[in-house]
Amino acid sequence: MTLRFIGTTSEHGNCPTLYEVVETGEILVQGERETDPEHLAQLRDVKDSETFVRIPRELLTRFAPRDTESTAGPQTKE
Hints:
Distance between the termini: 33 Å
Helix content: 10-25%
Order of helices and strands: EEEEHEH
Strand content: 15-25%
């Protein structure tokens, strides 16, 4: 599969970074792995094959802004 670089808020080629899987349109997120036990304990329905990464909100607002016309339901503010 082919990855397309979307953008980064880091300097010197470090993470965090967003990519798109061209064939599927899925987003691949590069970031620091979440290791805080309290955070991990609050996650739901986690498969053994899944992991979680932290990224700054700026990365999403800059390169993947919320779609106000989305039919996915209401967005909640964190």
